[in-house]
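Subject: sequence -> structure tokens, single chain

Hey, anyone have a minute? Need the predicted structure for the following. Not urgent.
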Amino acid sequence: MAGVQRVLSKCQRCVDDGNFYEAHQMYRTLYFRYMNQKKYTEAVDLLYNGSLTLLKHNQYSSGADLAMLLIEVLKTSFSPVTEDTIDKIVDLFKNMHIDCPERQPFMAAAVFWSTGAGNQKKSGHPVLHQKFAIIFWQEKNYLQARYHFLHSSDGQTFSTMLIEFNIVKGYPSEVDLFLAQAVLQYLCLQNKDTAQSLFKCYTRDHPDVNDGPPFLFPLLNFLWFLLLALDGGKLPVFTVLCEKYETSINRDPLYKEYLDRIGQLFFGLPPRNNNQPGFLGNILQSLLEGQGQESGGADGHSSNRQSTGKTTHSMAAVELD
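Reply:
Had a minute. Here:
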């Protein structure tokens, strides 16, 4: 223990004297010592403090190197996601310069670690995504902020960011489009509660949205009815909604892809068959099959279900994966 303290004191002197290369090497030496002894908690604290020290002295490459080693320790030790660990990761990320080449790889490694650290979300821990989203929002990087908010459970803060994004970067005619894409993508990710929270906060707080429902924007009325229909899960209701608001849905070609997936997840719609005439054709075909199943019994249901095939959809993979 005394030997470690001597090395740490020497590290601090190197930092004070501006000898950052030597300080970096000593941090790495102590890191290997801790790992050989399986002192993972000590290794995490060492790497966090060392990385933060170097980053605050604008030694971004060296600081990021220690930060990446911290993620390796978390993976090696199978450390669970905790509030303290998330705060350490986010603090280091925030102190990396926006143009630091290692910044994005560090974030990606942290998110990947969180997928296997007792977290059921394959896309990463929602709190970690939320913290990253807020940092990107503060940096006015709306697209990155939007991506990470989509993988969080914070619909209220996402709403505030999305309103600002629309006002700063969008057009008045796109007020409903900014919300619709996010709500539909949340539903594709099976995050119904956050989709409802986002819709409620956005329509309540956006200065260009009237008090509703009903709303002046037909697409917002569609979203409102859709969110209400989710709990019932009745395909005919979903079909009527999509037919009634087809003009609004057609404003963005991706909406039909999203709605096809939502139909499968929440309303029992089978995957689209390549021979079927598009999105509404898929829904109507399913309804016709359902009528035949009612007269044909349970065996007929199973046979029709299997005959639809298993076509997969692109569905804006960058946004949703």
